[in-house]
Design a protein that fits this description.
Number of helices: 21
CATH architecture of the largest domain: 3-Layer(aba) Sandwich
Distance between the termini: 58 Å
CATH topology of the largest domain: Rossmann fold
Radius of gyration: 28 Å
Shape: globular
CATH class of the largest domain: Alpha Beta
Number of strands: 21
Number of domains: 3
Oligomer: single chain
Helix content: 25-40%
Strand content: 15-25%
Length: about 600
């Protein structure tokens, strides 16, 4: 075969050199930092992008500094920081000096300070955050310092401090995908390690008040932080015990580590991390680790093993209506958990061949036809029915969602991994067609079934997943699909609490309020069409809220939400909560204030 040397196709000689190098030198293992328990779960390397996350003020930046000092001490790697969250720079320098000198900053002599500042100035570099604040600026400066100083590590702490503006034609998910691809290409092209700190979404606590450790798909903004990174590292500190959980939630290549976690000691004097030393009395599983992970176990055990878990209420232990097949008008009551588990294998042995027949359909329409003509049992997961399927007698606090391949052709292979990472998923399995998945999620209030479902639509959109909207029917039939090795069950899943009310068309009363030639509903339409954020500053956010509250009272909360939706920090629950606090305020902003602010932002955008 003729060698191909065009840039767009790798030559045969290049491929041979690469595989021979691997054969002679072995698989790369990454760089150790000298703490065995951490080195056992992940080892960073150049050419890679690592995302570090964790609850705010739980030690992300501390751990990043510690890792980079070790990479310098053990491997000679120099680091460039873009770290506005460590501003002012003198405080960041003091933290680095503490770690390098391994003692309290006040205990250093002037000569020691001068010595360590000299060391830092040769090995650690800091971008001027006032003049360098976009990703392109950062990468341009990094490129220069790679050439002049031999930089091998770039730190971006944190993603939300970048001042890049997302183009109006891109969703947040699409934009994050572009950012991550740019970082991946840069890291590989220049053979450097990029560490980026990404904050999680607003975290919840379990029933005992313990703050849950974030997972790989809890990152704020987009699932593509997890999908397109090489590592996901979670840092979670216990302030009382001065210990820290270091969790590897993703390691793209097994030769660099594995998914898992360890607990290390945090030294409050130096800010360094050390191996835990357990006595005979403390060798048992640390209670902090146990409680922090109690709501985040990624269930990998078989269905029968899951049956023995008794730490929390079994959310699947509820009555549902069972129908011999979809044409039966009246069903009987069965226990959902027992039906799903099928410990005696009755349903599987009886209906497996029927399900397999359906899955052999040559296309979507053929599968649909086979399903309609086959007698396969069904259950109504969200309710118990009375005299017929349409007679809802008792509603369960469960929602069953469908994720179909036809709606998610590019994401369907990633769905199982994503579902396993979500704390609220109690069960998922392949659909009867074999081409998609269904998942059962416990909700807080069955009376708000549709509001919870609306919120789930938005939640899964963040993962790039589209849910079948017909699942919003409480009495929807769920066809039997036998459990296999890939079936996942977590009967003690967390309760999903988010609700979302789809904004309705503005009331006529809103539209009738006009200043000049502009009506309120015209403003809402303009804001929506042009992705205009008229609450960009905190001051404007408050003024908009008060001007609406003073005019419409409680009924204006939906209107306020509509004006806030384009804000990069938009949180609907927070908007609604804050709005209610502004009702009957002493501030006398009128609806004219809203119109004035709108015009100011509109003119600014036009420029």
């Amino acid at each position: 075969m003729k060698n191909i040397t065009l840039n767009r196709v790798l030559s045969v000689s290049y491929l041979k050199d690469e595989i021979n190098s691997l054969y002679e030198n072995g698989m790369p293992e990454g760089m150790k930092i000298g703490i065995e328990s951490i080195d056992n779960i992940f080892r960073l390397d150049t050419g890679m992008v690592a995302v570090i996350t964790g609850i705010p003020n739980y030690g992300k930046s501390e751990f990043v500094d510690f890792v980079n000092i070790k990479l310098n001490e053990l491997h000679g790697h120099k680091t460039l920081y873009f770290s506005p969250e460590n501003f002012p720079i003198k405080l960041h320098l003091s933290k680095l000096i503490r770690k390098i000198g391994n003692k309290r900053f006040d205990d250093f002599s002037k000569d020691e300070i001068d010595k360590y500042i000299g060391y830092i100035s040769e090995n650690f570099f800091f971008l001027n955050y006032e003049t360098v604040n976009t990703l392109d600026d950062i990468l341009s400066c990094t490129e220069d310092l790679i050439a002049s100083e031999g930089i091998k590590v770039l730190v971006i702490d944190a993603y939300n401090t970048l001042e890049d503006s997302r183009p109006n034609n891109l969703t947040e998910t699409e934009y994050v995908s572009q950012v991550m691809m740019k970082l991946q290409k840069f890291a590989k092209r220049h053979d450097i390690l990029i560490e980026m700190v990404v904050h999680p979404k607003k975290m919840q606590s379990d029933s005992d008040g313990n703050t849950m450790i974030p997972g790989r798909y809890d990152l704020n903004g987009s699932a593509n932080f997890a999908n397109k990174s090489d590592y996901i590292i979670v840092v979670h500190r216990d302030f009382e015990a001065n210990t820290t959980i270091i969790k590897c939630d993703k390691c793209k290549f097994s030769n660099y580590g594995q998914i898992g976690y360890t607990e290390v000691k945090y030294d409050t004097v130096s800010g360094n991390y050390k191996e835990m030393v357990y006595s005979d009395d403390t060798a048992e599983l640390n209670t902090f680790v146990e409680s922090a992970f109690s709501n985040q176990i990624l269930m990998s055990q078989t269905i029968k093993e899951a049956h023995s878990c008794t730490t929390k209420k079994n959310v699947l232990d509820v009555p549902v209506s069972f129908f011999e097949h979809n044409l039966f008008k009246k069903g009987k009551v069965v226990n959902l958990y027992e039906y799903l588990i099928d410990e005696n294998g009755y349903y599987k042995s009886t209906y497996q061949n029927v399900v397999n027949y359906i899955r052999l359909g040559k296309d979507y329409e053929d599968i649909k036809q086979r399903k309609s003509e086959s007698k396969v049992p069904c259950v109504t997961i969200s309710c118990v029915c009375g005299q017929s399927k349409d007679d809802i007698e008792k509603q369960n606090s469960l929602i069953c969602i469908d994720i179909d391949k036809k709606d998610n052709p590019m994401m369907i292979d990633k769905v199982p991994e994503i579902l396993k990472s979500i704390h609220n998923v109690a069960y998922f399995n392949k659909s009867i067609s074999g081409n998609g998945y269904f998942a059962i999620i416990p909700i807080r209030d069955h009376r708000k079934f549709k509001l919870h479902f609306n919120a789930l639509l938005r939640t899964f959109e963040q993962f790039g997943i589209k849910i079948d909207k017909s699942c919003s029917n409480v009495n929807r039939l769920r066809y039997y699909s036998y459990p296999d090795k890939d079936t996942y069950i977590n009967p003690h899943a967390d309760i999903y609490t988010d609700v979302y009310e789809i904004p309705k068309k503005l009331d006529k009363d809103y539209g009738e309020i006009t200043i000049g030639d502009v009506r309120i509903d015209d403003m809402v339409q303009y804001v929506s069409d042009h992705k205009l954020d008229i609450t960009e500053t905190y001051d404007d956010w408050i003024k908009v809220a008060i001007s609406i509250a003073n005019t419409f009272g409680e009924s204006g909360v939906g209107l306020f939400v509509r004006f806030c939706e384009n804000n990069k920090n938009f949180n609907e629950a927070e908007c609604r909560e804050k709005y209610m606090q502004f009702i009957d305020t002493e501030y006398d902003y009128t609806i004219g204030t809203l119109f004035y602010i709108f015009e100011q932002y509109k003119q600014k955008k036009a420029k």
